[in-house]
Amino acid sequence: MTLGVVLTLGAITGGRGQELSGSVTNGSLDGLALPSMPENWADLPVKLSAGESVSYNSNLNAIPIGQPNPRGGPQGDFTATSNYGFSTTGRLYGQQLFLDANLGVIRYLHNVENNSTIYSLNAGDNWTLTSRCSGGLGVSLSKSPVALTDLVGVGTGVNFATTTAFNETGNCTVGDGYALLFNSGLTTTTNSNPVDAVNDARTTLLSAGIEYAKGYDTLTALASNSQSSFTGRTAAQVALGLATVTDFHSFTLAYSRQINPNLSVSGSAGLVGTTSGFTLSLPKSLVPIFSFSANWAFTPKLSLNASASRSVAPPTTLIANAEQSYDATVGLGYQVTPKVNVHASGTVGYSTSTFTAALVQAGFSPFFTGTQKNYTLNAGLSYSMTPFLSAGLTASYSERVGNGLITPQDVVTVSLNYRPF
Question: Is the distance from CB of 47 to CB of 421 less than 8 angstroms?
Answer without folding.
Answer: yes
